[in-house]
Amino acid sequence: MKMDKFNKTTSLRRVRQVQFLPCYQVTILTCLILIVFLFVFTLNHHSFPNTSTGRARSLLSSSSPEFNGGGQWEKLVRQSSTPRKVTGKTVLVTGAAGFVGSHCVLALKKRGDGVLGLDNFNSYYDPSLKRSRQAHLSKHGIFIVDADINDADLLKKLFEITPFTHILHLAAQAGVRYAIENPNSYIHSNIAGFVNLLEVAAKNTNPQPAIVWASSSSVYGLNTETPFSESDRTDRPASLYAATKKAGEEIAHTYNHIYGLSLTGLRFFTVYGPWGRPDMAYFFFTKAILDHGDITVFQAGDGDKEIARDFTYIDDVVHGCVGAIDTAEKSTGVPGGGQKHGPAQLRVYNLGNTSPVPVSRLVSILECLLGRSANKNTVRMPANGDVPYTHANVSLANQDFGYRPTTDLTTGLRKFVKWYVKYYSIQTKLVRY
Ligand SMILES: O=C(O)[C@H]1O[C@H](OP(=O)(O)OP(=O)(O)OC[C@H]2O[C@@H](n3ccc(=O)[nH]c3=O)[C@H](O)[C@@H]2O)[C@H](O)[C@@H](O)[C@@H]1O
Fold first, then answer.
1. pLDDT for the residue 27
2. CA 253, CA 275: separation in Å to the nearest integer?
3. Which has more confidence, 4 or 287?
4. What ipTM was estimated for this complex?
5. How close is the Cα of 120 to the center of ligand 1, in Å?
6. Pocket test for ligand 1, best of 99, 124, 234, 270 (most atoms within 8 A of CB)
7. pTM of the entire structure?
8. Is residue 433 one of the residues assigned to a domain?
9. Which residues are in the NAD-dependent epimerase/dehydratase domain (predicted)?
10. The domain containing residue 178 runs over which residues?
């Protein structure tokens, strides 16, 4: 009873105190509440998005309301795409958190161009590797928008904020063999996504950008002429992946013809190196050798040429991409997709190493560098979309923008395994080879 009375008296006193707060205290209290509210609001809306947190991702996702309205988001887009040099270009790089994309973005940024990345961070392979590349790039002031190339509104918004002079379009569903498992993903990215990007570039940009994009050595398909030259037949793709890349080349022709878009397709030849793709043989062979797992090495049929690839080191490919950007002419179309002023540039180049290496030799080099033997199962190459042999003739790229590959497979793989053991914190002694 006594206790109840005490409580009642105390609370009555408190009520009275509140009731009789002087006017200036009420003002101070209101201000404090306002400040706290503003602080919380700012934290929620202005988190720095170049982190790999889910929170940051949700803020940047095109489906979130902040994606195209947020002042801070626009500021990041603007900052990233503003060139450091007066003569610098402004480049939108799709697939920027991918293997080739992340290397190109950095090279462009380092030389003073303004670069904005775009990537959908899909889970075709471990997205945490893509997030790590993103975190690495953010240290260099590069911002990657988290969105899909099929999102036309987002693309239009980006062009409203920055009139990009160039698009380096590398976003794609890669991998030859995965097309058997998930054919629609190739249609979604390599056909629908590419068309969406070209539609926006043709009809919603002013001035229209020049576009450099990733085709593939796989377009040569069952071609038997070697080395592969750009004028060789490319109408016999061996995989759906190759067919979508070949379709991309034809689609590029159409948009160049109707809308005057300047378009350059680059046929990459089995690109490898640090920060590479875990779905590629050199990468998962390395993992298997270190884990004492098995690898399957495809072998040619009796009397056939050995299975080989024109493995091309990433730095050489980056030089090729930058060279293609620097020699790309302006588009000739008019905003809104009307009549073009005149013919626009349409190009296709091989970016290879000019020296094919058998897959069995790739395995031997890895064994030497890692100081361990691989557990190999050698099987006849299955009908999985792979082609037996690739070999690039790069004289056209050399003539037009001085492309000259300089890294042999052993040197390139040495750099790759060095990166691999560091990135995955593997305690092993690499062999000097
Ligand atoms: O140059 C290209 O156009 C293509 O290069 C690579 O495709 P690929 O050459 O097949 O590269 P890997 O998947 O790393 O295969 C390399 C070689 O290893 C062989 N391989 C692959 C997997 C395996 O388990 N065993 C094996 O012997 C393949 O037949 C191939 O000869 C990329 O994955 C494609 O995205 C790219 O477009």
1. 54
2. 32
3. 287
4. 0.99
5. 23
6. 270
7. 0.86
8. no
9. 91-329
10. 54-277+313-355+395-408
